[in-house]
Design goal:
By secondary structure, the chain is of the alpha/beta class. The protein is 21% helix and 23% strand.
Length: 236
């Protein structure tokens, strides 16, 4: 009797060997309590801040900032076991990262704009789609869904930015012009002091906004990230 196996659809994820631990080493283990996710940096008090990309509900993140920060987030998402699909019009800017991520495993895939295939995201194989599609990203075929989050990168404010800001669950803003900071402040309901600080932000600093929550976060590269991407920068 011949057994038929249905073809696999979507992006292939990394395959990891099993891990074992001697019984006398169990005391060295510790489990985080509270939120978990991708570490995006530290707040002003030096406390780690995280984004929980892996969710059972659609989750949209908008970053008005630099390519460097988006790439650090993509690398760290891949490091948590997610498959990362990058939709981009500048493949050359992502090629080195995709080749280096996952220690040879195909966990970061690159796709032309509008060409991201169905990913087959599940609780055991979550996906983060990074949309690096310029100032006017088209409405994507692949949208956020259970266990598939979408991170959209805008280098600056654009005509589509207000719509994306209102639709996103989480918005990150890096250094922008005074005129842009005023518009962003109105849309996100920022305090005047918060809006006025945006044009003065250092490279690597992001204001993350979700509803009434505000978090100023400094993202610093690890040695590996710095070797691959360089130091933090707002301009590409």
């Amino acid at each position: 009797m011949t057994k038929h196996i249905a073809p696999r659809r979507g992006l292939l994820g990394p395959r990891h060997a099993g891990h074992t631990l001697a019984a006398d080493h169990l005391g060295a283990l510790s489990l985080p309590v509270g939120d978990d996710g991708v570490i995006i940096g530290d707040d002003a008090e030096g406390r780690p801040q995280l984004i929980g990309f892996h969710r059972p509900a659609p989750y949209d993140v908008l970053l008005i900032g630099g390519l460097w920060t988006a790439q650090v987030l993509a690398l760290r998402a891949a490091g948590t076991g997610a498959r990362v699909a990058v939709e981009t019009g500048r493949t050359q800017a992502w090629t080195t990262l995709a080749q280096a991520a996952g220690a040879g495993l195909e966990c970061v895939s690159l796709h032309d704009v509008g060409r991201v295939p169905p990913t087959g995201a599940t609780v055991g194989s979550p996906v983060v789609v990074v949309r690096d599609c310029g100032m006017r990203p088209p409405r994507g075929r692949v949208v956020s869904s259970p266990w598939q989050s979408v991170l959209t990168l805008l280098p600056y404010l654009s005509p589509v930015a207000p719509r994306l800001m209102r639709a996103a669950t989480l918005v990150g803003v890096q250094r922008v012009s005074p005129a842009e900071s005023e518009q962003i402040g109105r849309i996100l309901g920022l305090a005047r002091t918060e809006s006025e600080a945006l044009p003065t932000l250092a490279d690597g600093v992001t204001l993350w906004v979700s509803g009434r929550e505000r978090h100023w976060v400094m993202t610093s590269a690890t040695d590996v990230e710095a070797g691959l991407l360089g130091t933090a920068r707002r301009m590409d």
